């Protein structure tokens, strides 16, 4: 048995479309992060960017469980004194539904240069339309709760 060493020329990045309507935010974000990292491929290598491009549609219809709509807070700081701003999840979902999914996925990626490169392969849209139909994306199959 030989260990296969993957090179940058061997990596094939596909395009995947994910429909977020009715899905729970955390469970959806873990699946997206898994595809962005490339852990779903047999050629996964942790030190290389071997994941796929992910297009998320219907971000405005994502679901938060429990009291997260009122209790979850997103913080932003302007780097000036007293520049801390707090936004509740329901306000963020109403104004910028794409950021809710983006922040959740970015938190699940590695905190280094490679993770920032992987995050660039994520595109999130509030509605059903997206401009990436030319790349011929395929729909991501939903994993069953019992199977995996």
Can you tell me about this structure?
This protein is of the alpha/beta class and 148 residues long. The chain has a single domain (8-64, 92-139), classed as Ribosomal protein L13 (Ribosomal Protein L13p, Chain: A). Helix content is 28%, strand content 17%. The protein has five helices and six strands. It has helices at residues 25-37, 68-71, 89-95, 97-106, 113-119, and strands spanning 15-19, 53-57, 73-77, 84-88, 122-124, 138-139. The strands form two sheets. The chain has a four-stranded parallel sheet with strand order 5-2-1-6, with helices on one face. It has a two-stranded antiparallel sheet with strand order 3-4. Strand 1, helix 1 (25-37) and strand 2 form a beta-alpha-beta unit. Helix 3 crosses helix 4 (97-106). The protein is globular. It starts with 14 loop residues before the first strand and ends in a 9-residue tail after the last strand. The model is unreliable at 144-148 (pLDDT under 50).
């Amino acid at each position: 048995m030989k260990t296969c060493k993957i090179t940058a020329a061997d990596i094939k990045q596909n395009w995947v479309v994910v429909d977020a309507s009715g899905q729970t935010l955390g469970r959806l974000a873990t699946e997206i992060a898994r595809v962005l990292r490339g852990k779903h491929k047999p050629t996964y290598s942790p030190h290389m960017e071997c994941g796929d491009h992910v297009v998320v549609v219907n971000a405005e219809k994502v679901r938060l469980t429990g009291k997260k709509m009122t209790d979850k807070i997103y913080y932003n700081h302007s780097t000036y004194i007293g520049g801390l701003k707090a936004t509740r999840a329901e306000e963020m979902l109403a104004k910028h539904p794409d950021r809710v999914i983006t922040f959740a996925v970015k938190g699940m990626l590695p905190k280094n240069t490679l993770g920032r490169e992987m995050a660039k392969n994520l595109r999130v849209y509030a509605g059903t339309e997206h401009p990436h139909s030319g790349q011929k994306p395929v729909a991501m199959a939903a994993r069953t709760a019992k199977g995996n």
